[in-house]
Structures
1.
Amino acid sequence: MHELETFKLIERISALLRSEERRKYATIGLQPVHGQVLEYLARCNRYSNTHAAVAEYLGLTKGTVSQSIQVLERKQYLEKSVDALDGRIFHLTLTAAGKRLIDELKPLDVFKQAESRISRQEVDSVGEALQNALGLLQKVNQSKSFGLCRSCHYFQVEQHHYQCGLTEQPLDRDDTDKICRDHLPTPNPFIDRE
């Protein structure tokens, strides 16, 4: 079956990337999950940088995420701050050391080497196919998309700024390039057909 072959290819690519990730993080005394937490926090917006959002995005328990956050906080790769409106919520942000670590370790060298050997058109085509596959899997699993702000149904362009239609708050230009926990995808004909 063609679908099963696609699954096997994705699974094999994932195994190779995880192996490379384990090797890189072991050299600095971290686990891949720590890198995944940092990578997520580097990509998410200010509405999505909480313990719960990290757990949801990575599909991990809150306990596992809390332990990982404690390790990263002790190593001074991230810091916590209390939410201005709700004192029960903590926001997580990367420190300068955390940002440097992400820059040093991502993307994986093995992936960069492989990507450099295929054409730009092939990379774009594979990327689009994988994006569509991810969207379908998220829809079937009824999981959140965590998509880019600017691709969200709630994203609005006002006269002099960008705005989130859900929170009704202005967005910085940098916000529009980040992923959001509350992302609502705009309709995609490949994913949304019944």
Note: The longest helix spans residues 2-26.
2.
Amino acid sequence: MNPKNLVLAFSPLVLFTAGGYLLGPPLVGWAALASAVLALLILIAGLRNGVKLITAASVVTFGGLAAVALLGGPTGRWFVDVFGSAVAALLIGLMMLVSVGTVPFTEQYARAVVPREHWGSPEFKAINTKISLAWAGVVTGIGLSRLAYGLLVAASGDQVGTLLRLGLSWAVPCVLVVAGLRYTQRLAGDDHDAEQRRGSSPEAVRPPEPRR
């Protein structure tokens, strides 16, 4: 599985977090709307390979946040500005976790590059379960970090130090994402090596015995 596909799936969350941070409360609703539109475009572009769970969840989540901010007045804008990223990340992380009990969401991306005959193999299922659990943890961790930041803002009247703001809003999420990407690459590399070993085993290359 190509980790770039996961990065693309999470791009609406990144756009909303960056847009909300740069634009501030007055325009946070438009940042949410832009993220919903981006998620919708990604969803439409990938329809030939099926509807992706995370992208569909992003369309609904950011569409809902946009409605709250644009229609909810000052209170709605404040809520989305302070807690919007946390709500989005926690909801998407929950969807990822739920998918592990049915079809791990990363299978949808892996099937685009893995031959169909391997889709039902125990190795394919096991690796995608591990990767899906890992990314559910990453995104949930991002949500908890953003929630902690939001609670500090609400409690202190937005008097949160710059280092603490950057740490909870950006540093912790970046560390979690890098760890998730490295874990995904390592598992994908181990799977590739295992396939090569199976392909080069004596049983795999032994010629058929001649008929007697």
Note: The radius of gyration is 21 Å.
